[in-house]
Every structure is written in C-alpha cells, then in structure tokens.
Amino acid sequence: REKLSVARLQREVAQSKSEGAMREKLIHELEEERHLRLESEKRLREVTLESERSRAQMRGLQEQFSRMEETVRNLLQSQGSPGQNGEGTVNIMKVYQEKLSEDSRKCKEGMEKIHMPVDEDSRSESSSTEEEKEKTKLLLERLKALE
C-alpha cells in the first residue's frame, strides 16, 4: 500500500513539475509576443508619422508645381506669340525643367528615405502610395502638355 501511495505521489510531483515547466514556457512566449506587438505598434506609429510628412511634402510640391505652371503661362503670354521670341521661350522652359527636375529629385530622395519594410499592420499605406503615384503621373502629364 505504501508503495502505491509513494508511486502516486511521485506521479503527482512529476505532473506538477511538467505543468510548471509548461506554465513557465507559456509565460515566456507571452512576454515575447507582447514585446513583438509593442515593437510593431511603434514601427506602425513611425511609418504613419513619416507618411503624413510625405503627404504634406507632396502637397507642398504640388502647390509649388502649380505656381511654376502659372508663372510659365504668364511669361509665355507676356512674350506674345510663340514665333516672336522662340529663344526666350526655350530658356524659360529650360529653367522650368531644371527646377522641376530638382524638385522631382528632392521628392524621390524623400520617398526613398520613407520606403522601409513595414509589417502587415500598415498595408493601408499602399493605397496612399498608389494615390501618390497617380498624382505624380498627372503632374508629369501636365509638364508634357506645357512643353
């Protein structure tokens, strides 16, 4: 009878030790998951903030582009018909293209700084990237029309 009792107690001790080890393992995994979640949330906040900065920069560039377009139109109108002063128009367009390419380069550099691997939580940012690509395409079409 004592042997059965000792064997039963040993089984209970072994079972309790294995449950304790499993509990420790689960707690460790839980802490690891919590840490990863906090890191992901931090990255998401950073990417969101950078995205807002990029949108503001894009709006500024679009406004500047519109002002430059208007300036070119005004200069072309003030010079009269295109045949009168073709060289002046070419110079204006060169200056305009240089300024536009400089702004485009700055925008691309800004966008390259932003492009970083992002976790699944920030997939909604891809739709805004598509919008920005569409806006860039429209701006390029406007430039071609001006040329």
From TrEMBL:
<feature type="coiled-coil region">
    <location>
        <begin position="44"/>
        <end position="78"/>
    </location>
</feature>
<protein>
    <submittedName>
        <fullName>Nck-associated protein 5</fullName>
    </submittedName>
</protein>
<feature type="compositionally biased region" description="Basic and acidic residues">
    <location>
        <begin position="1"/>
        <end position="11"/>
    </location>
</feature>
<dbReference type="GO" id="GO:0007019">
    <property type="term" value="P:microtubule depolymerization"/>
</dbReference>
<dbReference type="GO" id="GO:0001578">
    <property type="term" value="P:microtubule bundle formation"/>
</dbReference>
<dbReference type="GO" id="GO:0035371">
    <property type="term" value="C:microtubule plus-end"/>
</dbReference>
<keyword id="KW-0175">Coiled coil</keyword>
<dbReference type="InterPro" id="IPR026163">
    <property type="entry name" value="Nckap5l"/>
</dbReference>
<feature type="region of interest" description="Disordered">
    <location>
        <begin position="1"/>
        <end position="22"/>
    </location>
</feature>
<feature type="region of interest" description="Disordered">
    <location>
        <begin position="101"/>
        <end position="136"/>
    </location>
</feature>
